[in-house]
Specification:
The chain is α+β, with helices and mostly antiparallel strands and 476 residues long. The protein has helices spanning 12-22, 39-58, 72-77, 79-85, 111-121, 166-186, 233-237, 262-271, 297-313, 329-338, 349-354, 378-403, 411-417, 431-441, and strands spanning 26-28, 35-37, 62-63, 69-71, 90-95, 98-106, 130-139, 153-163, 193-196, 208-215, 221-231, 241-243, 249-251, 253-260, 288-292, 319-321, 343-347, 356-361, 370-374, 405-406, 422-427, 444-449, 457-458, 465-466, 468-473. An eleven-stranded mixed β-sheet has the order 3-7-8-14-11-10-9-22-25-21-20, sandwiched between helices. A five-stranded mixed β-sheet has the order 16-15-17-18-19, sandwiched between helices.
Length: 476
Amino acid sequence: MTDKLPTRSENYSEWYNQLVQKAELADYAPVRGCMVVRPYGWALWENIQQALDRRFKATGHVNAAFPLFIPMSFLEKEKEHVEGFSPELAIVTIGGGEKLEEPLVVRPTSETIIGYMYSKWIKSYRDLPVLINQWGNVVRWEMRTRLFLRTLEFYWQEGHTAHATAQEAEEETLRMLDVYTDFAVNEAAVPVVPGLKSENERFAGAFRSYTIEAMMGDTRALQTGTSHFLGQNFAKAFDIQFLDRNNQLQHAWTTSWGLSTRFIGAIIMTHGDDQGLILPPRLAPTQVVIVPIYKNDDEKVRVMEVVERVQKELVDFRVHLDARTEMTPGFKFNEWELRGVPLRIEIGPKDVEKGSLAFARRDLPGKAGKSFVPQTNLPEQVTQALKTIQATLFERALAFRKANTYDPKDYGELSEVVQSGWAFSWWCGDAECEAKVKEETKATMRCIPLEQPGGEGLCIVCRRPAKQKVYFARAY
């Protein structure tokens, strides 16, 4: 490994940028604002995909694929949608050396083209609900980009569903928000706040937008997944109609929801430390790395015999054996710490003699994470160690969020706390109060959490009566 990472306290942004590259998660592409996801980063994304895909299929969803190119006229059918996305569109005007009759948009999201297809497929209430998800890439012409967090092209899943009633569609929207919350908490060990976006922050063309918000290691907020109740906006724009049970023609009610490679950024910034990544065991591409330690051929024979047996016993885990001879054990330790492997097993001559192994947990620094365990019942011991690491990461991140979330007594105090934390404050519901906070503090309203304390208070901005508390924070 070359050049040590800057510490998070010195330069958090540079720590993040260098870590993504040094840990070989991603690299900059030759096109401004685009990234190349390297094999280690893609393996992490594949584990995220699998964890989500299982949940989608368990709730009745199926996968399909829709085109990357969308006729410009499609976006123009939903006025609010095209206005919301117009600054971010990449548009193709020439194909095959000739000017196109109609420009094509490289999809920023697929509500329009999927709405068009649903209008062809849905004719009766018997055709509903339609529960489709697609895995793919989208393009949004961002001006300020950062690897994983905001790039011109990124990878994601987008679910699109159609329903017979508003109630069914709203239930679907919240069901998928719950799926995202469950994934974030139980797979990624990232504590999130599920909530409703304000009118100013909702998705262009949606009736209501819901989000899961997470606190990063510098206390900034990151929107890590969204679920939208689209009402009948897109159904009316694309004529998605069906005959109901009473033989009456009705417009369908639709939803859309998505989670992207941005979540990799959330994992990095929620758990990482000054040594590098700390990956949650359930998603880590490599859960266990085995490092043999020996000085001569005699020691090598004895050590490798144990190493091979250990490797076979741990076949049910994602295990990597680092048998490189040109690198010192210390170099390997630093490299695997940088790459965030949850558990390192060290095996040397003394371990062979004693019938023991050294466990080094990535979530605990230095000696605190080191322990010696017997070579017996290894699968059970590794399982328990990984469970403990997973739980520790979540509890630590949750404690960090709680410690950096404040309930300011007035607007002046709110202005101070949002510079280095979150404010959980009463809000009257007035967009002007929300805009004042954004303009004067650079903090945005992250969400109106679904879990409310109850009762009433005074709006943190205007001091009028308020019935809901919201989170304000500076965000990525």
